[in-house]
Amino acid sequence: MPGGVPEARHRVQEAMRAWGEPAERIEAAALIITELVTNAVRHTSTRRIRCRVLRSADGVRICVWNRGRVRIPAPASPADSAGLPVGKAPAAADLEGDDALDHLAEDGRGLLLVDALAARWGTRAAMAGRLVWADL
Q1: N or C: which terminal CB in the chain sees fewer CB atoms within 10 Å?
Q2: Contacts of 47 by beta carbon, 8 Å cutoff, 6+ apart
Q3: pLDDT for position 13
Q4: What is Dmax (Cα atoms) for the chain?
Q5: Distances (CA, A) of 24 to 20, 43, 79, 116
């Protein structure tokens, strides 16, 4: 299922390019979908994960749904390293392309990134699973 992360990222980028979205919004969406799908892959016991990108007059909404019911943590403040890995990891700026995107999701700081890039984001749990969404 890890192949689902680059596939979701590619499809979101394609859709947004087709809509004529600006490059910086496409990049933000790529980073957000990377984190949300990575979390879904890590925190579900099923292979069924759905991604959806919606465009409206207000902007773009990215949605990721899975059958897992694991709680999605709120991002820690940048000043609070509690719960974040300790150690020196390579800076995302030192990595290129998909490696940089994957690194951000892997080091536990991805939801901080979602919080910074999205106008708003949230999560909803139901009997059938969990939906996590982000608005750009």
Answers
A1: N
A2: 1
A3: 97
A4: 43
A5: 12, 29, 26, 14
Q: How many CB atoms lie within 10 A of CB 109?
A: 21
Tokens of 40: 């879904």
Please tell me whether residue 98 adopts helix, strand or coil conformation: helix
Helix 4-18 vs helix 23-42: angle between axes, to the nearest 10 degrees?
150
Question: How do strand 129-135 and strand 49-56 relate by DSSP bridges?
Answer: unpaired
Task: Confirm if 30 and 17 have CB atoms less than 8 A apart.
Answer: no
Q: Helical H runs in the chain?
A: 4-18, 23-42, 97-106, 110-117
Q: Closest by alpha carbon to 62, among 117, 1, 125, 126?
A: 117
CA–CA dist 62, 55 (Å, integer): 9
Report residues of the chain scoring pLDDT below 70. 1-2, 68-108
In DSSP notation, 108-127 reads T-HHHHHHHHSSEEEEEEET
Is-contact 62 34, C-beta < 8 A?
no
Nearest to 134 by CA among 46, 48, 72: 72
Which tokens sit at 132?
């996590």
Q: What is the CA radius of gyration of the chain?
A: 14
